[in-house]
Amino acid sequence: LLFDTNATPSKMALGFGPAHLPAFKPAAPDLQAALDQKHLFVVYQPKIHCATGRVSGLEALVRWQHPDHGLITPDRFICLAEEAGLIDSITLAVLHDALPWFAQLSTDYGGLGELTLSINISARSLGRPELIDAIVNLCARSGVSPSRLIFELTETAAMDEPVAALTLLTRLRVHGFMLSLDDFGTGYSSMLQLVRLPFSEIKIDRSFVASAATSQESRAVIRCITDLGRSLGMKTTAEGVEDAATHAYLQEIGCDLAQGYLFARPMTRQLLTNWMDQQLARFGH
Ligand code: C2E
Ligand code: MG
Ligand code: MG
Ligand code: MG
Predict the structure, then answer these.
(1) Which of 249, 256, 216 lies closest to 234 in space, CA to CA?
(2) DSSP state string for 141-178
(3) CB of 121 closer than 6 A to ligand 1?
(4) Would you say the CB of residue 242 lies under 6 angstroms from ligand 1?
(5) Which residues belong to the signal peptide in this entry (predicted)?
(6) Of 69, 109, 202, 208, which residue has the fewest beta carbons closer than 10 angstroms?
(7) Residue 68 pLDDT more than 50?
């Protein structure tokens, strides 16, 4: 195991580093040490069907539990990992942690139907065939069908390196994996570039979703992306849904899936299992 799952946090799970310390700015050796010492772990956020509230899948999100500086979120180290050449190690560590567990979870909660597992991948992994081989092997060993695995690439990553993106995404697609365009609406993709890439899902960026309840413009953008997804045969997912009014709007316009604190936060395995039990009581059988 690449992660020490017993070392997942309890005290600082919601917090930031201790208040008396100056802000910690991690460097490459800190991150390498975190990988070696298994201080990274994964939390899982459910994705639900807008129409029913029933779980559709889980997204794996990495965390760093630093012994001195507390919980560090990925916004503070993914960029560093990319620059330091450690991002593939993180991707593989996340998969190594998530896949066998997800295989078991899918069996335990089979009554809820086929679940998907979403994994975030980085632009810097584009064009590295070794990574794909490793992913395919890990997947085969865990017994999870590639069609249940969704790789999320942010719009900016896809558009910064469109040729490399197409190569990586096509390779993943050939192996049967699903692909998702993350944080859509924040970059500058042209519609043409979008339809050329083999995505099966578009995730509407949280910035639009967060302001949907109060902004007519945000609602217009969300509706437009949902219609676009439908026309292109892609699923649309709204990320960062925090209020019931926004959920009602998403139902009204026929957005397929949603994620956000309204439904569930990213959770440790233990908390996620409790949440899944509640889902089973509501929707199972
Ligand atoms: P993302 O993939 O777009 O993930 C969604 C982010 O929004 C997550 O932040 C999640 O905790 C947060 N979120 C979900 N629902 C809500 C909500 O209702 N309200 C608010 N305010 N926030 C919500 P997180 O976990 O901090 O991750 C940030 C970004 O870091 C991710 O954005 C993803 O791009 C990247 N990331 C996370 N894990 C990995 C990983 O394993 N590998 C790579 N390459 N990137 C990762
Ligand atoms: Mg994502
Ligand atoms: Mg996103
Ligand atoms: Mg994001």
Answers:
(1) 256
(2) HHT--GGGEEEEEEHHHHHHSHHHHHHHHHHHHHTT-E
(3) yes
(4) yes
(5) none
(6) 109
(7) yes
Task: Tell me the residue length of the chain.
Answer: 285
Asked if 270 and 41 count as a contact pair (C-beta separation under 8 A), the reply is no
What's phi and psi for 216, nearest 5 deg?
Answer: -60, -40
Q: How far is 269 from 200, CA to CA, in rounded Å? A: 27
* Helix, strand counts (H, E) of the chain: 11, 9
Q: Please determine, for the modelled complex, whether the ipTM score is greater than 0.85.
A: yes
pTM for the predicted model, two decimal places: 0.93
Q: What is the CA angle 38-4-70, rounded to 5? A: 60
Interval 198-230: pLDDT, tens:
999 999 999 999 999 999 999 999 999 999 999
* Distance separating alpha carbons of residues 98 and 119, to the nearest angstrom: 9
